[in-house]
Amino acid sequence: MEHPRDHAYPGHWEADVVLRDGGTARIRPITTEDAQRLVSFYEQVSDESKYYRFFAPYPRLSDRDVHRFTHHDYVDRVGLAATVGGEFIATVRYDRTDERGLPASAPADEAEVAFLVQDAHQGRGVASALLEHIGAVARERGIRRFAAEVLPANAKMIKVFRDAGYTQKRSFEDGAVRLTLDLEPTAESLAVQRGREQRAEARSVQRLLTPGSVAVVGTGRAPGGVGRTVLRNLRDAGFTGRLYAVNSAFPETTERLDGVPAVRSVSRIGEPVDLAVLAVPADRVPEAVEDCGRSGVQGLVVLSAGYAESGAEGRERQHELVRRARSYGMRIIGPNAFGIINTADGARLNASLAPQPPARGRIGLFTQSGAIGIALLAGLHRRGAGLSSFISAGNRADVSGNDILQYWFEDPDTDVALLYLESIGNPRKFTRLARRTAAVKPVVVVKGARHSGSAPPGHTVPVTRIPDATVSALLRQAGVIRVDTVTELVDAGLLLASQPLPAGPRVAILGNSESLGLLTYDACLTEGLRPLPPQDLTTAAAPDDFRTALTAALADPGCDAVVVTAIPRVGETGTTDPADGGALGTALRTAAATAPAKPVTVVHVEIGGLAEALSAATNSGPSRPSPPTPPEQPPPLEVPPSGKDGADAPTPTAVRIPAYPAAERAVRALAEAVRYARWRRQAAEPGKVPEFLDDAIDASGAAALIDRLLGAAPDARRVSLTPDDAHELLALYGIPVRPTLPAPEPDAAVAAAARLGYPVALKTTAPHLRHRADLGGVRLDLADEAQLRLAHRELTETLGTAVELRPVVQAMAPRGVDTVVRAAIDAAAGAVLSFGLAGAPSELLGDLAHRLVPVTDRDAAELIRSIRTAPLLFGWRGSAPVDTPALEEVLLRVSRLVDDHPEVVSVTLEPVVVATHGVSVLGATVRLAPPPARDDLGPRTLPSYY
After folding, report:
1. Of the ranges 267-281, 346-360, 444-458, which one carries the lowest mean pLDDT score?
2. CB of 127 within 8 A of CB of 119?
């Protein structure tokens, strides 16, 4: 491509975006080679739209216009185009102007902006997406305001500006509305952007899961094979739309295959196709994608393998696949996918290799592995659970777990979201979406490849440096239920989909086996629950005895949940009754349906038919209200879905009770529900950053200091501050660090102590001895000159020379508990605040807690209470409790520092001594670097990694 010589082509402005209707478009800078595309685009714009753009009849562009609109310097004059299939569907441009409205260069910081959208694409949100991107470009080039003149009749364009969320001013001049927008992102503009992102991405997934027509490309002529299998599965599932079999090798005389219209290409179908399933070899996929794109297909499921999972050549093939599909506005499931399923009556879509589609239910399932997907489908089916939707994304080169969360968030048919993930391409976005979704329905995640340190083959995503334990803590902060195995994923999903959330941790245990009851009791204690003494019904208990006992337990206000334990009932003849399982299941369901809405789980040992009886409801769990039915057919009442209040009493036939073969599994699932319910209650009243912090924070002074330190550094890529500079920066955020004075020889140590005042501490600052009191590198409570000189001599005689040890003197702080506070920036996850006790607990045992920045007062309080050694802060074994409110304030101040100044990429305060009154920061290190890119604050864009 040829570009203006004075400024290089800004390739980083190129982006794929999802539009309001779920389709995609490519946004890129306009170049000199776009003249013919611009002319062709303009010819397809209506006279009315041209009039709104130029305020006068303007039937065609002159050569001068074309030159002006295709030649830009990418600084003062910028044009962007939205393209589909390589052709323009909309354009936007800005021209920098001075205060008189004349062309200008920097430092002028205002620009005139104008849009033109092809009529056929108006209403798709193209202009809104272009405004986000041109606004980001303008800010990058030093432009702070946009000015636009719009005819009053151009209501659509006025709405685009009005709804953007930017601070704006309006006036009426010379028959036009003049709008001025401040381009600095605001809370409102960010909320608008994320709302549009959610609706667009959800719609793009909805289009994939609810197609009106499906073409299977690569349907074999002979029985068997992937394409023929998918076609059969679609037909056997009762797909409600139109089906087509596509194979370029079909003879011209072939009109139908397995009762389905058969054609040689998608373009020959002759009517719209919403979804294409590609089951052709990888080298033939490009041809199929082109055929689909030219035919207006909306989405693709690519089952073909041979992409990024196969090496460098496959990665390039995958990159080209996504680029080509997105150029036509299509989204992709895959490649190397297992397929998708939607059990809704209006779809009945089984575009997968699963021969037995799951029953209809309230669970949504997403997996990045076909093999794990097969196992999960089988496990859920075996235990009587149904699904609302299933997506196996394979290499997930395009549609990912983030997109699926966007869809499930507003999907009325999904009450519980289950995800098996092997990589998280955008952890910052995932936690944001998961937190929002978890506020209304449970999100359960199991993550594979936790300890490999790299993404699995085929997952070309950025690799985060955060340890898995930290990722787990951050997911829990977002309300995600993190489990370790796919078995636990199913266990938790079954309980959450069929039972109400518990109001607390109090668990009643009842059953006909004292031993099994004790095992359940122990498991509850292990999981942090509060079990009541087990109630032994004896081995002679009949189903009616279970029903009576369960009804009483559920009615007890001192109980929040019930675990029923059951073993086979042995009669007087020494045999078991095969009917007992069904009778017991009916009895338990009857009790659960007529008692207050509390969760019930069952632990059983080899009772035939019990699990089937417990799950034999009309569907796999609670659903939202059905449409009204005639009076003679009253709708069944069901147990409310997770998180509902359960005011209506359900009928017995609508209740499902999850059954487990081991007490530990049932209790672990219940414990996850208890923790999640507690998070939901707390999330309903989120914390805040206390106002008092603002009085002691000098953000502008800190910004000036950071700019000066980065500007003076020989290598600004990463600057480790000197102790004095670090202390000065921290002081500007109300975090004083106790000063230290160098003590290279005894006389210097004595002079330092005289300045600081006795008692003092003498400690080494050599890296290998820092904070290592156990190695003798720290001497405390030195009360006078004699003790100080003796300590100095002992240090240098036993550990090394003063030059090696770099000893310092510091005034003694009040005795307390030594803690460590850290903040670090991860390129993928963002800023993370960590806390633990100093020394062995955090370094040897890894007893650290983590939260994403910014941290609220509630986050800070939870942070210090979530480490295993937290009792040491609260008066363990008779010791005096320390000043945790002061410690929380330090955490909040560090959070504000790194949140306000992204150049602060690392802060470590160690030790932070927490006394009974106040805290003392005795050591601090700070590192600076140019601020990393924040993709969550920029314009909406699809990931560019494939």
Report:
1. 444-458
2. no
